[in-house]
Design goal:
The chain is mainly alpha-helical and 337 residues long. 64% of the residues lie in helices and 7% in strands.
């Protein structure tokens, strides 16, 4: 319905039914406002989903990479370590030493001899090395898991921009990407509404113009003595009628009753290679209308009527000219009375 409303509004306005035209315009604005908000919400939701998915992938990659870097940093601090098995073997060998038994597992109260103290110090270092080896072993396992996680990601998708259009426009305009995305959503919604609401109206207007411009040009016989309703289009009597209603009745002298057509019969003659400017022709029509007590139409409507009557015109050197015609040197001074 919204697509047809502009056509109906235009038709009712031209028909003089302004109340219906205003009512139709109100409906069109209400429909457009509702559709605009719907289109804006739908586009924003779609863009937010795509941006959110891309940002989630980038966040996952960033977290995994940060964890991997942290593990590598900790391993660098631990330095080169032996395996847990090697350290545990040395500890087991120390437990088998007789000094381990005499000191009751390196109890501080039982360490009296110098050799026993040296043995227990070595045993304590082995326990510390074992803790370091176990930590390093756990870190290596975690690093392998993180590396496998990163390796399973498609970095070409993860590292690309989440919304390159908005980010590029944000750099050019100085606004934030979020503000640019909002503006783009509003622009797209407006374009959709203009296209859906006014597209048919624009297309049909162009078609009617092309159809009118395609009317074959027929030469005008200056000796025409009969009114031709098909060339005196219906709006002309309304906007170029004489002030007296009787003047619209058939003319007693046999000339056309359409004022513009009558002017062409009495004041214009055909001649090869002749031409007259649109300004001069319209001035002549205004002077004739004044003498005939007719309210003249404006120049735009006069030009349209001349084209409908079959006269050819073209723009050359910034001036519109009618071709193949010239003003009569001594036109008959006739009125519509």
């Amino acid at each position: 319905m919204k697509t047809i409303l502009p056509l109906a509004i235009t038709a009712t306005w031209l028909a003089g039914q302004k109340g219906r035209a205003i009512a139709g315009l109100s409906l069109f604005l209400i429909f457009s406002a509702y559709s605009l908000t719907s289109a804006l919400g739908l586009y924003s939701l779609s863009r937010a989903n795509s941006v959110g998915t891309a940002n989630a992938g980038k966040a996952t990659y960033a977290i995994a990479k940060e964890e991997g870097d942290r593990i590598k940093s900790r391993l660098d601090k631990l330095g080169q370590t032996r395996t847990v098995g090697e350290v545990e073997g040395d500890i087991a060998a120390g437990k088998a030493n007789k000094r381990y038994a005499t000191t009751k597992g390196c109890s501080p109260r039982e360490i009296t001899a110098t050799k026993s103290r040296a043995f227990c110090d070595q045993y304590a270092r082995l326990n510390g090395e074992l803790a370091t080896a176990r930590e390093a072993q756990d870190l290596r396992k975690r690093l392998l898991a993180v590396s496998a996680k990163i390796g399973g990601m498609d970095l070409s998708k993860v590292l690309r921009s989440a919304d390159p259009q908005s980010e590029a426009l944000a750099k050019l305009t100085g606004y934030s990407p979020e503000a640019v995305r909002t503006a783009l959503a509003a622009l797209v919604a407006v374009l959709i509404e203009f296209g859906s609401g006014l597209g048919l109206w624009v297309v049909t207007g162009g078609a009617s113009r092309r159809e009118r411009s395609g009317i074959p040009k027929k030469p005008i016989d200056k000796h025409l003595t009969q009114a031709r309703p098909e060339t005196c289009i219906s709006p002309l009597p309304a906007y170029s009628a004489p002030r007296l209603g009787k003047d619209l009745l058939p003319s007693p002298d046999g000339l056309p009753v359409c004022p513009i057509e009558r002017f062409t019969v009495t004041h214009i003659q055909t001649k090869k290679r002749a031409e007259v400017t649109a300004k001069n022709l319209y001035e002549a029509f205004r002077n004739w209308a004044k003498e005939a007590d007719i309210h003249p139409v404006n120049q735009t409507k006069f030009g349209r009527a001349m084209v409908d009557l079959g006269y050819r015109k073209e723009r050359r050197g910034g001036t519109v000219r009618y071709l193949g015609v010239e003003l009569s040197s001594a036109p008959d001074r006739v009125t519509l009375q």
